[in-house]
Amino acid sequence: MELIKKRNIFQLIFQSRDGLRVIKGGALFALPPLLFIISFTLGRYPVSPDLLLNVLAAKLLPLQHTWPDTVDTVVFQVRLPRIIASMLVGAALATAGAAYQGMFKNPLVSPDILGASAGAGFGAAIAIFNSFSIIGIQASSFLFGLLAVLLAYAVSSRIRHDPMLALILSGILVGTLFTSGTSLIKYMADPYDKLPAITYWLMGSLAAVAPRDVLSVIIPMLAGAVPLYLLRWRLNVLSLGEEEARALGINTGRLKFLVIVCSTLMTAAAVSICGVIGWVGLLVPHLARMLVGPNYKVLLPASILIGSSYLLLVDDLARIMAVVEIPLGILTSLIGAPFFLYLLQRSRRGWL
Amino acid sequence: MELIKKRNIFQLIFQSRDGLRVIKGGALFALPPLLFIISFTLGRYPVSPDLLLNVLAAKLLPLQHTWPDTVDTVVFQVRLPRIIASMLVGAALATAGAAYQGMFKNPLVSPDILGASAGAGFGAAIAIFNSFSIIGIQASSFLFGLLAVLLAYAVSSRIRHDPMLALILSGILVGTLFTSGTSLIKYMADPYDKLPAITYWLMGSLAAVAPRDVLSVIIPMLAGAVPLYLLRWRLNVLSLGEEEARALGINTGRLKFLVIVCSTLMTAAAVSICGVIGWVGLLVPHLARMLVGPNYKVLLPASILIGSSYLLLVDDLARIMAVVEIPLGILTSLIGAPFFLYLLQRSRRGWL
Amino acid sequence: QTAVKTAPAEKTVVDMSGKTVKVPAEVNKIVVTCYGGATNEIVVLGAADKIVGQPSQENFPHLLKFEPQFKNIPDAGSFDNISVEEIIRLKPDVVIASVTSPKGNKKLEDAGIPVVTVLTGRATIDGLKKEFKMMGEVLNKENEANTLIGFWDSRLKMLKDEAAGLTADKQKKVYYMLGIPLRTDGSAWGQDFITTAGGINVARGVDNANQVSAEQVLQWNPDVIIMSSNIGPTKNHFIMADELKNNAQMTNINAVKNNQLYQCPIGAFWWDRPSPESILGIMWLARTLYPDTFANINLARETGEFFKTFYHYSLTDQEFKAFFNPQSAGE
Amino acid sequence: MRLELKNVTCGYGSKPVVHQVSLPVDSGEVLYLLGPNGSGKTTLFKTMLGLLRLQGGEILCGGENIGNWPRSRIARFMGYIPQAHNPPFPYKVLDIVLMGRTAHLGAFASPSENDQKIALEAIEALNISHLQNKIYTEISGGERQLVLIARALAQQPQVLIMDEPTSNLDFGNQLLVLRHVQKLAQMGLAVVMSSHFPEHALLSATKVLLLHKGKVFGAGRPEEMITEQSLKTLFGVDVKIITTTIRKGGETRVIVPLVQ
Amino acid sequence: MRLELKNVTCGYGSKPVVHQVSLPVDSGEVLYLLGPNGSGKTTLFKTMLGLLRLQGGEILCGGENIGNWPRSRIARFMGYIPQAHNPPFPYKVLDIVLMGRTAHLGAFASPSENDQKIALEAIEALNISHLQNKIYTEISGGERQLVLIARALAQQPQVLIMDEPTSNLDFGNQLLVLRHVQKLAQMGLAVVMSSHFPEHALLSATKVLLLHKGKVFGAGRPEEMITEQSLKTLFGVDVKIITTTIRKGGETRVIVPLVQ
Ligand SMILES: Nc1ncnc2c1ncn2[C@@H]1O[C@H](COP(=O)(O)OP(=O)(O)OP(=O)(O)O)[C@@H](O)[C@H]1O
Ligand SMILES: Nc1ncnc2c1ncn2[C@@H]1O[C@H](COP(=O)(O)OP(=O)(O)OP(=O)(O)O)[C@@H](O)[C@H]1O
Ligand SMILES: [Mg+2]
Ligand SMILES: [Mg+2]
Fold this sequence. Notes:
- The complex is a heteropentamer, with two copies of chain A, one copy of chain C and two copies of chain D.
- Chain A is an all-alpha fold.
- Chain A has a single domain (30-346), classed as Orthogonal Bundle (ABC transporter involved in vitamin B12 uptake, BtuC), CATH 1.10.3470.10.
- Chain A contains 15 helices and no strands.
- In chain A, helix 1 (2-15) packs across helix 2 (19-39) and helix 5 packs parallel to helix 7.
- In chain A, 62% of the residues are buried.
- By secondary structure, chain C is α/β, with parallel strands linked by helices.
- A four-stranded parallel beta sheet of chain C has the order 4-3-7-8, sandwiched between helices.
- In chain C, helix 5 (125-138) runs antiparallel to helix 6.
- Chain C is globular.
- Chain D has two domains: 2-226, 3-Layer(aba) Sandwich (Rossmann fold); 227-259, no CATH class.
- The longest helix of chain D is centred in the C-terminal third of the chain and has 16 residues, at 171-186.
- Chain D starts with a strand and ends with a strand.
- By secondary structure, chain D is an alpha/beta fold.
- In chain D, helix 4 (113-125) crosses helix 5.
- Chains A and C meet through helix 4, helix 5 and helix 8 of A and strand 12 and helix 8 of C.
- Bound molecules: adenosine-5'-triphosphate (2 copies) and magnesium ion (2 copies).
- Residues 41-42, 83, 163 of chain D line the site of one magnesium ion.
């Protein structure tokens, strides 16, 4: 069963006429593991490749421990969680974005559209304002992210006319409410004290990710990603529009609800460990669509592969560029936007 | 000529079958002047209505000056510019929003879509960062607002496929770039002084508007509003879509450029004196469309009337609610969003 | 214009933004629209009773103890977020505002109210001393200002003399933690604060309060970590030493290994930020870094003297001890 | 298998557009819905498919009320070819046709080789194999219509509901589709379709339902229903219906409008 | 007034779809473009209107190359009824028709009383006065088509370009539109339209151009062009063309497809 599906992915990816696509397909699968390994050698604290090999090998073999303990800390406590977190977050946001773009039949939609990030940001701000611990901030952020989307969903369900537009409008509305709430908290926060904390948190950064953080988000992320991955064929059908999808035998109400819950789980989890990182959820699905076409059977895996590689790459840059860590949210935009522009202008079929 | 058009507006407004609409139409025209007068009596510094009358009359008649000079200051230096500014900004954002929604055939578009606010915000941030004077901040904000939109326009014109989507995408891209720029500046700014200044500025407030500010924006605002008002019939046609509008005899390239330039002039001018005030440009055209229908001949005047009243009302609230003013950007959202939700649920035809 | 008015005598001062301001010769009502120790300056110069409006001082319970009336003073906003009408209503003779809020200041000037700017967070030690002098002129408290500057100068000289014995190899690397473990400060004040106390700020290349990576901190490997108590991740929940010791990413840093982790104290103001009191903060840091070199500094005595002289308040031992337990400040 | 509408009333919001329509269709039948613009054909179709809420009456399938059927069961039972269609993402034509298989798949499954085979057969049946790998958004209006028909075939339903399936088709493709409709009926499907061509009904309908302003104006065999009189009433047009012999001895009735 | 295409080649991007088409139409003529799905009719129309770039050849109006004409001049000269139409904001039907007047207005003007009168006349001419105050997005597909035709009439052009104007119309409305087309031609307009009904061309065309895979397959009088032979080649259908007398002594040719 799983095997057949996998073959189909390969088949679809490689089916295209031009040999270029075969290379692209191969590159897609090779990219994440490659970057994963390279990323271990990058950082402010110098760890040479052969030292790295030794350190890694020492975890398995009884090697002599000739390097300072700090190297171990750097590799396993600082770099490993950070690399895993950035790949997880990138894949999660890309998957959520791809799913939403199909569901809303709109290539301009990002996973934030229903207010997940706005809610999560508000949750974090309120936690910071009320002096919660770091774990408290994460939990509050996650819960408010979910809450915002559920609120948007509940509100939209009271509007009869054109359910998709209703959902987007409700999402924007609820998002604005939570963003204003965040502003209000910022405003009430002592400018000497909470304001910078809240502002910086919202910019998004993986600098402080600890192994514990990775563990705490891996469950909601999988809980979101696995169903979406399994439902990927239905996403195709849903993207034809509400009425047509129903005529083709899909319970659109339930499917939409599932897509929303899954995407929100992933988005809120992502925001809860590293703040608001925009742009990935919008950019990566486009990129994937340019490479493999709009069919979700291949689009979703491609989004996951590209998303994880992209965010890892950007975070690597953030780590090595300067003493001061530039927030990831800023970097993703500053790198992503021009890159996207370039792609737009080059591609034959525009953003499709 | 002007007379005929005015008659047509009235005609169209009052043409509708139900008498309720006649009342609505009358109320629309009466609202702004009424609010204008009431707003003078509101504020922390007590000025009773009859004292206010005296103060105003003294400007024209040689009355005896029995009140302290401070009252003059409050009425003419503090309240008058603020009232005018809020009406101007409200009308400008509503007009720009209505025009964009037609041009992009999309009721979810706001005047920020092409990056005007993001650019203006960046301009202000960079000016604050570099300790410019207030006039410098305003000029920088205005110029960067224009620059952002022109950049988006230039970029989009290099993309062949589907010009409208290209424009929106370019706008979002450029907007993201400038927003990230602002974040970067925020990040580099000293959290003890520049950061609060930039953050508060971006929240939007009319608290610091001076008579000079009003004069400095009235020209770009009129330069934007008058052509749009005159072009309002063509906006109808443009909203049918690029191809159809061209078939009906419209040079869509030129018209679109005009609409963009005019809307940007107004948006950038608005942002330059009072920071980013979201939501008005999205909400008010909807409200107007619910009241008078989608025909721009009446929609545009209605948007102007409702926009100016709405922002004035919200600003009045900001002034009287608390000693320390809640930023207008926050208030417009906190009031606008639930109000809009209520309207959405009530209206028979959804947001149309 | 029949109302009889006695033209008030005026004087001019040059404020901290270099602007010449006309203020009444006799200043009786003051509105403060900034933090940054401006209120404390007015208090130590003996003009606390003239403040009629200022931002909430609830973060400084020690200050409220001897100036309890501050709890009831109206808040007319701070920095750019001010209520002009409220300030007009309070009829101040002068507004003390920050150099960083030109927009709000301008609005007040337009309403005809004299605005005198102070450096707030942009201060350096030299700037701060100038500011004391300027404030003395505005408030007609030149003597008090000179006393304060004298206190500063004598203590600065003492620090400098004692630090002469510190050779480069004995100097300690200090990491100044702002709110969260990875944010630090290499800006003007952060730099002055640490170097005057004889330390080396590892983040001297880092301009303002900015975030760095865990690896960077590992590479710097500071000898001492000081943790700010004014910019917590949360209110009254500042970074605790335990938190760092339990953080696997931090365990190999010298400061953590040797338990050299210190929270900055809060007196009537934060001791790690510029204010009349920050000289005490600098002495605290010097003593903390080099207990031997600065063994002569008796912080309790210095603090007692400062509070006696400038706040006219006799500090009990218990109150003094509370300064070093910032968490208790909220209670 | 029989699809039966009993006193169906339906419309938008709470306003009824179609009143009290009853109609039974059995396997092997081709039912034509004829009626002027705005008479409620599309509305009725959408209601049959459960896309619009029923305002009155009931819809039965094999005697069973389908009101509570899950969507996938309805889709396995009824296929739909919509009148208007907004091009979505730039899917390949083959993918669009494959989507017709959705109702036959498990919730988490993607189409199998077998589904692909069925889709390819449907494409071949409509002579559009050359379009198979083209992008759906870049083919002509008529070509899209053929693709949608292929999709409905791939859906393998028992009832096929077609809203003006020939309206954008060229002369040749119109007849192709009509032939298909007949073939499907012979294979045991029930076909319900609307059309603006009474002549087509004469060619391929087994039953005709005339709709006028949302009410049933008549129902029965095509020859009985499509008369000079009824066309005059329904469409306000004077026509002459003539019978002509065609090669191979067959007879056909043609409708000749009397213009000027 | 004569509209003339000379060796026009056009398509999407740089790929030509229609090759070397030449065609003159004069006032009073009704030119039918007949051709299978995907043969390039819509493409050619869009190019004539300047909505697609000309890849070769030229388009002349009264001998003048319209390549550099401003859009409003083109619109006063040519009216267009598109094949596909996305409903925009919920305008009233009257407003939609009024938009046809745009090309006659100054850049800053709105429609005058007179424009309104013209629009109302166009609406009346198509018997859709009852729709006048309805919301355009809430009327049936066929009703929309009629509204678009009324809009093109209100535009008062000299050449009317109609892309399958009858494809969603009911039997009665089809004939109504055809009658209109003839009336307009008599009033001096040149009409260029595409259709999937050769019979309609026999009814109302003065000229027919057959298009096959983007190339001209033939052009001339309808009786000459629409033959059993040409229909077989273009559409792959066997037909019999018979002549029948209709009341009032007139004669009509009908096309009878030979099925089964
Ligand atoms: N979304 C809608 N909301 C309200 N009324 C509608 C809507 N769509 C159609 N109507 C109205 O319902 C009636 C029937 O429309 P319907 O689309 O069912 O007609 P139809 O028979 O399919 O016409 P056509 O042959 O033109 O497609 C029409 O009078 C139309 O104005
Ligand atoms: N946007 C497009 N981009 C690329 N090719 C296109 C596009 N639209 C249509 N085509 C191709 O151009 C050819 C002609 O299409 P066109 O729409 O002109 O046909 P048509 O004669 O109008 O057909 P129909 O009768 O079905 O409307 C077709 O082969 C089609 O696949
Ligand atoms: Mg229909
Ligand atoms: Mg066509």
